[in-house]
Amino acid sequence: MGHAFAVFFAAVFTNNILLTNYLGMCSFLGVSREVKTSMGLGAAVVVVMTATSVLNWLVYSFVLAPLGLEYLRFIVFIVVIAAFVQIVEMVIERVSDTLYAALGIFLPLITVNCAILGVSLFMVIRSYTFLESLAYGAGSGVGWAVAILAMAGIRQRIGGSRVPKGMEGAGLALVIAGIMALAFMGFNGMMRLN
User: Fold this and answer.
1) Do residues 19 and 180 touch, judged by C-beta distance below 8 A?
2) Domain-by-domain residue ranges, the chain?
3) pLDDT digit string (tens) for 22-55?
4) pTM for the whole thing?
5) Which residue from 46, 121, 123 is spatially nearest to 85, judged by alpha carbons?
6) Angle subtended by helix axes 170-185 and 130-157, to nearest 10
7) What percent of the chain has pLDDT over 70?
8) What whole-number distance in Å separates Cα of residue 192 and Cα of residue 194?
9) Phi/psi of residue 160, each to 5°?
């Protein structure tokens, strides 16, 4: 249990899937203009990343590995992720039309968010147990959500500020992301995942 907590903590801070591995940058940069939208996408990513890491661990451990089909993990993981995202998309559409419209194309793009596939692949490479995979998926999702919320807060705060012409839009977002990555590197000495 203690190691699962360490995996969760490390996934949120020291090995943040977004700011240390740079996975999931597309939707991170595209949606992080408003805090409300970022909160919705962050919550969706937490749910999808947690659930698909568990589902993919189960499929890998009880189907692919016993049958010697480990080489199919990329295809199978993507199918599991796509199916689960489809379910989440239908739920969000039923629950909140506003959030569904605000997320727009980025909601179905969670399917191809490389951070989600990366979490499933990292848990296999690192030979995590079920509990560790759950902790890693949840921690990575929370870390991704923390990063996008921080980015949205910063971008919204400086939205009315005068910025040099060449730094407007994506340029400023990339600079902010770089500074955030440096800040998260400050946690590096605390604990690290292999």
Assistant:
1) yes
2) 2-185
3) 888 877 877 777 888 888 888 888 988 999 999 9
4) 0.85
5) 46
6) 130
7) 95
8) 7
9) -95, 0
Q: Do 193 and 15 meet the contact criterion of CB atoms below 8 Å apart?
A: yes
- Token pair 């995979």 in the structure block, residue: 133
**Pairwise CA distance, residues 23 & 17, whole Å:** 6
**Amino acid identity, position 72:** L
Q: Are 37 and 103 in contact (CB under 8 A)?
A: yes
SS3 state at 114: helix
Query: Span 4-18, mean pLDDT?
Result: 87
CA distance 152 to 103: 14
3-state secondary structure 137-179: HHHHHHHHHHHHHHHHHHHHHCCCCCCCHHHCCHHHHHHHHHH
Reduced 3-state DSSP string for 18-70: CCCCCCCHHHHHHHCCCHHHHHHHHHHHHHHHHHHHHHHHHHHHHHHCCCCCH
pLDDT at 131 exceeding the cut of 90: yes
d(CA 143, CA 38): 13
> Comparing C-alpha atoms, which of 28, 40, 45 is closest to residue 147?
28
Residue listed under structure tokens 């870390």: 143
